[in-house]
Amino acid sequence: TLRSSGPAFCGPLTLAVRRLMDLPPPPTADWGDTAADFDLDYAFRKFGGQTYQEAIRLFETTDLLSRVEDLSVMPDIAFRYYMLAYRDFVLSPRVFEINYGIDASTAADSFLNLIMRRLETSPASIKPILSALLPAAQYISERQVEYSADEDIYGKFSDAMLRIQALAAAA
Fold first, then answer.
1. What is the predicted pLDDT for the residue at 19?
2. How far apart (Å, rounded) are the C-alpha atoms in residues 3 and 95?
3. How far is 51 from 47, CA to CA, in rounded Å?
4. Which of 17, 28, 33, 38 is the most buried (most CB within 10 A)?
5. Which residues are CB-contacts of 29 (< 8 A; sequence separation ≥ 6)?
6. Better-scored residue on pLDDT, 31 or 5
7. Mean of the pLDDT values across residues 2-20?
8. Contact at 8 Å (CB) between 132 and 16?
9. DSSP reduced 3-state for 144
10. Residue 148 has what DSSP assignment?
11. Neighbours of 143 (CB within 10 A)
12. Residue 10: which of 146, 155, 136 has the closest Cα?
């Protein structure tokens, strides 16, 4: 099941994930002028200089919605680096253990919404990592019940996936 193991594409570490884990975090210059934007400055203070593994620990140990908000304001390079860490967090069995699994639905929904929002507002910023995000989004959209994401609260993940696919095709 999902709770005991992730999808096959994130089972054994793929070469791409291993490479990401070995990459240094985006340098300060890739964050732009953080002093000019309070939200960006806050995101930088949380994520700036954090490695892939450290970012996953941030998702596990701090307020999840605040970290998702941080992702949403990041400039392109930082967003791509940390969004892949977020993908791996959302797909991990650990997402079901934290806070007694309560955050799993929020993590899954916010993952789909982050992809959708970036495709709507800045498709060029997400396009380089779409091939790494779309299989994960599809996997999550097919497992709404396993993520305990009530349709009355989160809507249908399958509808979100259809929107993501349409936006991705147009990107």
1. 63
2. 8
3. 8
4. 17
5. none
6. 31
7. 46
8. yes
9. coil
10. T
11. 16
12. 136
